[in-house]
């Protein structure tokens, strides 16, 4: 069994070393393949990755995008390079804890799930208290997604998603930015995938700390919910 972790990165100079160390150190009873996709960072992230790549036995496969395209495009490149039986998405910003991989993939290992979402609104793990209106927007988008997909997710926008690789091979992704989340959700629903959720912890960050998603991404997400559910 091989588990691939795909890490899209854009301008995460402050956190990239830390998250790669955490992902590399996490213990799961399977071989790990770690794919990092740098989305043409301009802040020194790319230089850090190049230094890591030059080091002996770095253990990472690093893809460098020629221009900035967005998280969805970076994930598409990472998925295309993945060899694992299970593929996990990991953001590079330290908001999500790699020590929870075992929990995330367990429903797939049990033969119950094709896809697993790590919900920030379930479970007993610690959650940083942050923006009320982000919470409201997330719940509204998740509810709208559920209406169109007939799923009962609690956190459609979560980063932590795990897939059997065969599922990803059946999906053609089109969204280049944060529209990836509603697009992939609509498409796994249309495939009739067995979807599970597990509760995860969440250490959210502020915009001063580097958070990138904006209100315009929420508008795009709403359009993507409708577009990919109906057409």
In terms of topology, how is this protein built?
Elements (H helix, E strand, L loop, with lengths): L1 E8 L6 H10 L5 E8 L6 H10 L5 E5 L6 H11 L4 E4 L11 H9 L5 E5 L12 H18 L11 E4 H5 L10 H12 L3 E5 L15 H16 L1
Parallel strand pairs: 1-2, 1-4, 2-3, 5-7
Antiparallel strand pairs: 4-6, 5-6
CATH architecture: Alpha-Beta Complex
Largest sheet: 7 strands, mixed
Number of domain modules = 1
Radius of gyration: 17 Å
Can you walk me through this structure?
The chain is of the alpha/beta class. It has one domain (2-230): Spore Coat Polysaccharide Biosynthesis Protein SpsA, Chain A (Alpha-Beta Complex), CATH 3.90.550. The protein is built from eight helices and seven strands, in the order E-H-E-H-E-H-E-H-E-H-E-H-H-E-H. It has a seven-stranded mixed beta sheet with strand order 3-2-1-4-6-5-7, sandwiched between helices. It is globular. The mean pLDDT is 91.
Write a concise keyword list for the protein shown above.
231 residues, alpha/beta, 7-stranded mixed β-sheet, 39% helix, 17% strand
């Amino acid at each position: 069994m091989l588990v691939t972790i795909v890490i899209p990165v854009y301008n995460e100079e402050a956190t990239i070393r830390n998250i790669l160390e955490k992902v590399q150190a996490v213990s799961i009873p399977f071989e790990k393949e770690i794919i990092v996709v740098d989305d043409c960072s301009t802040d020194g992230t790319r230089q850090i990755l190049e230094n890591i790549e030059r080091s002996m036995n770095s253990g990472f496969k690093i893809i460098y995008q020629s221009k900035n395209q967005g998280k969805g495009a970076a994930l598409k490149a990472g998925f295309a390079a993945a060899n694992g039986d299970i593929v996990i998405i990991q953001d590079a910003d330290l908001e999500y804890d790699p020590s929870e991989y075992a929990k995330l993939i367990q429903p797939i290992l049990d033969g119950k799930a094709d896809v697993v979402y790590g919900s920030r609104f379930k479970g007993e793990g610690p959650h940083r208290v942050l923006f009320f209106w982000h919470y409201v927007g997330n719940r509204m988008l998740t509810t709208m997604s559920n209406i169109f997909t007939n799923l009962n997710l609690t956190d459609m926008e979560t980063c932590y998603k795990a897939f059997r690789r065969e599922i990803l091979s059946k999906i053609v992704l089109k969204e280049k930015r944060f529209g990836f989340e509603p697009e992939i959700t609509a498409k796994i629903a249309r495939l009739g995938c067995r979807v599970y959720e597990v509760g995860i912890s969440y250490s959210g960050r502020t915009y001063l700390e580097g958070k990138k998603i904006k209100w315009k991404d929420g508008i795009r997400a709403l359009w993507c919910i409708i577009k990919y559910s109906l057409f």
